[in-house]
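Project standup — Tuesday

K.O.: blocked on the structure for the chain from last sprint. Re-posting the sequence here as requested.
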Amino acid sequence: MKSMFFFPRAVLMAATSVLAIAWSGTAHSQDDENKYYRDRVWSGFNGGEMNISSFIFRDMNANGEYDMGDRPFANVAVEVTNPSRGPEIVRSNISGFANFRASATRRDREIVKPGVHDFRVIAPPGWRVSTGNQAQKVAMDLLLGSPGDLVASSPMDPVGLVQAPEIRGRVDIGGQGGLTTVTASGPNAESPSVPVDDAGAFVIPASPGAWIVRIANSPAGSIGRRVEIGQFPVVLPLRASRSEAGEVQAPESASFDDLISTESVAKIPNGYRQLNWRNWVVTHNRTYAGEGYVNGTMSGEYVAYNGSGHPTSIDSGKPFHFIGGYFTGAWADAAGEMLTVKAWKGDILEHEDRIKLSAMGPVYFAANYRGVTRMEFFTDHYWQVVVDDLVFSFP
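H.V.: unblocked you, prediction finished:
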């Protein structure tokens, strides 16, 4: 027979009360928990800031639109005229954005009051706006609770820039008795007489297409150089190669995108494009946040530079042709840095050229060095030079 236990009703009620009291000490109401997830009450100032951005790009095909193949343009100055104070300048970052900070409460920002603001892109020397919107007006409105309590009525449209193509060169006037004359002809254009300065330098405004530059009365006699002009300035070598005539067989482009695939750096190994590379480094164009690394990228996302700004060389056990490539200064702080390029055939120095660098964009050096075995590159003040799309060929 099972034993039965009975508890008085009063005892049971007391026990239940104790359990209820114990539970209530650890329980939370739904309202208490929801306080961590409540919708914001949209009133009063937020007190922060937000960006009003102007996007600047290199219009690679010069069609006046931001489309596939165009690239961000770093270090371009953009001016805003604030209704409450004078103009202020912000430069575009390596992603192409000039970010103006807007805040109704932080008085040291570029935009601090409602009203119409005038934005103007200041094109670097030798560049022009291709999109027809160098100046844009943006109405700023007060909107409490927004990140900066100020908002734009509409975002700005992208601004594209193209570089004015030109042919740069120099003639050897040292010890020359006669007068050197330079002429040029191109697509629907002709320069019957090109001014040459005291150092022998000349600049020819050009349009895209095939050009012929003729130098008469030079120490080497009358010579003609054929050069193809695209969207960037072209630099000619001081001396034409003795074997310049003839087609180049099977040219190879060193674009450096096939060497690494991370945002890092790596030494260029010997054997790349059948050549030996000394003190050359390949990197993603955003690794260093340098203006020229972005502005000097012509294809892909990787470029090469001279390690730590020190001299570099390229050589081979057999003769090779260096057709040309794109050269850019790595940093805006080194604007005007000069690059020297030398080339040998065995022990004989065949070429020595000087190229003025800019971080705002590349120049194409149409070297056309034929049958050389070694090349050296060095800058006057040991700043980095960015190179891309170097073209070589083996005879």
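K.O.: great, moving the ticket to review. The mean pLDDT is 89. The chain is about 5% helix and 45% strand.
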